[in-house]
Specification:
The complex is a heterodimer.
Chain A (H helix, E strand, L loop, with lengths): L20 E5 L3 E2 L5 E2 L2 E8 L9 E5 L26 E2 L4 E2 L4 E5 L14 E2 L4 E2 L9 H14 L7 E5 L1 H12 L6 E5 L7 H15 L17 H15 L2 H7 L18 H16 L2 H13 L10 H4 L6 E7 L7 H13 L4 E6 L13 H21 L1
Parallel strand pairs in A: 5-8, 5-11, 6-7, 11-12, 12-13, 13-14
Antiparallel strand pairs in A: 1-4, 2-3, 4-8, 9-10
Chain B lengths: L6 E5 L5 H10 L2 E6 L2 H9 L4 E3 L14 E7 L8 H11 E9 L4 H8 L24 H10 L2 E9 L10 H4 L2 E8 L3
Parallel strand pairs in B: 1-2, 1-4, 2-3, 4-5
Antiparallel strand pairs in B: 5-7, 6-7
Classes of the chains: A alpha/beta, B alpha/beta.
Chain lengths: 389, 185
């Protein structure tokens, strides 16, 4: 996911400064991998007000390389504007004047929640390679625990794009009584071999960096920058469509003549290197490894012998599923698999296939058809919340 | 024509008004299928389940016999793959309901007699901007049913005022409503 893809938001409709909060959890969590974490802390943000009945809470789940910082800014700095600011805020499709929005940095993350760079209390050293491989199910469990701590019995909606959409879908399976609506954008019911292959290339780039030290690079005061950079570059290509890249860069050169060497010559090379460098500055390689694994492992139907219809039979939620025509990472066909399984269960679902040239990143874009649809759907949710009151 | 509490798939559901009405009046549940972005949005606003898809691509996302009724309202004359779509509707629905403007309606016949392509309340387009590609008469449709193993369960023919026509329906009927299933079931 390309956090820079969003267009400049309408400042008047944006949240101003926001600040993250941290909650410490002292009850252990048994992770899907079998390991038990005795304690952990979770960084999160909230926007808007929780109503008296606590029925207007919306959880936003982040994807591969985003965080809990969905909307607003830190200390008035425009550069710190949240990754889904065009979607979430006062008067936005997910309107913080009506909804209490919660967003969480997932367990294993590198934006404040307990993750591989955190100190393992048993050893006094960073977890590094010993930090467990976490899953979407684990994240949903942690998010549910956070909701309990915030006094939220059930979310009016859980929403996310890409891997975030997968979390929204998992919520309706694991926490069926605690989620009224799921908004599943640009997601898939599981990864394809090609998706896993791209993730493996990214992981190999990281683990083969000499500065990786088997994941324990913190002790050496280095980070596997080169590996992380390549991982980001390959990921980035999969977020864009061929057409979008062509429109943005074509075969444009930085200088007018070919130099017959390996400098950065084409604009697209320059862009990818810039994105890679920027990412390597802010993201933890161990987190990247684990999040790509969580993607690969995501397959809720596996618990029902691959039967997604049977998997979703326990859901009590209503759904909005959205895909984008030029998204080849999680194509419309993948979203339709989800929709078909929901229809086979007679669950309430609406599905839109948004015409967009922007590839997977379209879910972060300020597209009027897409945003109007999400807005209309949240109007429906708001009406139900008001009715509950 | 539609049972209380039935499940309905409304193909070409437009703004979802029909499903919204059926939901409220007969407690039906189901989905609309619509291709157009704006109509999908209107359907969401109308509180119905809408699935964006092109009917001409078939109904492969829906299981056999998944719905009590599959409805195709005032859309039959606009589809290209008419035979495929009717077969698909018969596969997905236990029963099918279609409505279409009767090309054999006397007003249309008069206009053709005077050498004009018919324009009416039911066929409100000019020849150059009409979405209709397969206009048909009541008589045409019944021959189709006969030759395509379709069993007609109920038909209602209405005039322009919306009252039932019992005499010479193919001449005095402006709108035809048919409920049918597969013969031999």
């Amino acid at each position: 996911m390309n956090v820079d893809a969003q267009q400049s938001p309408n400042a008047e409709l944006s949240l101003g400064d926001v600040s993250p909060q941290i909650l410490q959890f002292d009850t252990s969590i048994l992770l899907k991998c079998g390991m038990e974490l005795p304690e952990y802390s979770i960084t999160y943000e909230t926007y808007g007000e929780l109503n008296r009945e606590k029925t207007n809470a919306v959880l936003i789940c982040h994807a591969l390389n985003a965080s809990h910082h969905v909307a607003g800014t830190y200390d008035g700095d425009e550069k710190t504007r949240g990754w889904w600011d065009n979607m979430v805020g006062p008067g936005k499709p997910v309107d913080t004047n009506r909804f209490f929005v919660v967003s969480v940095n997932n367990l294993g993350g590198c934006h404040g929640s307990t993750g591989p760079a955190s100190i393992n209390p048993k050893t006094g050293q960073p977890w590094g390679s010993t930090f467990p491989v976490v899953t979407v199910e684990d994240w949903v469990e942690v998010q549910a625990r956070l909701a309990t701590r915030l006094g939220i019995e059930a979310f009016a909606a859980v929403m996310g794009g890409s891997l975030g959409g997968m979390q929204a879908l998992q919520w309706t399976i694991d926490q069926a009584d605690r989620v009224k609506h799921a908004i599943v954008v640009a997601a898939a019911p599981k990864l394809s071999a090609q998706n896993i292959a791209f993730n493996e290339v990214a992981r190999t780039a990281i683990t083969s960096d000499p500065d990786f030290y088997g994941g324990d690079y913190y002790a050496h005061n280095v980070v596997p920058r080169r590996g992380l950079k390549v991982a980001r570059m390959i990921g980035h290509i999969t977020y864009l469509s061929d057409d979008a890249m062509d429109a943005k860069f074509g075969r444009n050169l930085r200088e007018e003549v070919l130099k017959f060497n390996f400098d950065t010559e084409f604009q697209v090379e320059s862009y990818l290197r810039y994105q890679g460098d920027k990412f390597a500055d802010i993201f933890d390689a161990n987190t990247y490894l684990r999040i790509t694994k969580a993607l690969d492992y995501f397959d809720p139907a596996a618990a029902c012998d691959g039967d997604l219809i049977a998997t979703l039979a326990k859901s009590k939620s209503k759904y909005l599923v959205v895909s984008f025509t030029s998204d080849w990472r999680f194509s419309p066909e993948r979203s339709r698999e989800i929709v078909e399984a929901l229809v086979d269960n007679n669950l309430d679902v609406s599905y839109a296939e948004i015409e967009s040239p922007h590839g997977h990143d379209a879910f972060l874009m300020d597209d009027v058809v897409y945003h109007n649809l999400v807005r209309a759907y949240f109007d429906r949710i708001a009406a139900e919340v008001a009715y509950d009151d | 024509m539609i049972r209380e509490g039935a499940t309905v798939l409304d193909l070409g559901c437009g703004d979802g008004a029909l499903l919204a009405h059926l939901k409220q009046a007969c407690g039906v549940s189901g989905y609309g299928v619509e291709k157009d972005d704006q109509k999908v949005l209107s359907s969401v606003k109308n509180g119905i389940n809408v699935i964006q898809a092109d009917l001409e691509q078939g109904l492969s996302g829906f299981a056999d016999g998944a719905f009590d009724y599959v409805v195709l309202s005032l859309t039959l004359q606009t589809v290209h793959e008419t035979e495929t779509i009717i077969q698909e509707m018969l596969r997905v629905g236990k029963e099918v309901i279609v409505t279409f403007p009767n090309f054999g309606f006397w007003r249309h016949r008069v206009q053709i007699f005077f050498g004009k392509t018919p324009v009416s309340k039911e066929l409100p387009y000019q020849w150059y901007n009409t979405p209709n590609v397969h206009v048909l008469t009541i008589s045409d449709f019944e021959i189709f049913c006969d030759t395509h193993a379709v069993r007609i369960l109920e038909k209602i023919i209405l005039n322009e005022q919306g009252t039932r026509v019992n005499v010479r329906p193919n001449l005095f009927g402006a709108l035809a409503i048919y409920r049918f299933n597969r013969r031999g079931l």
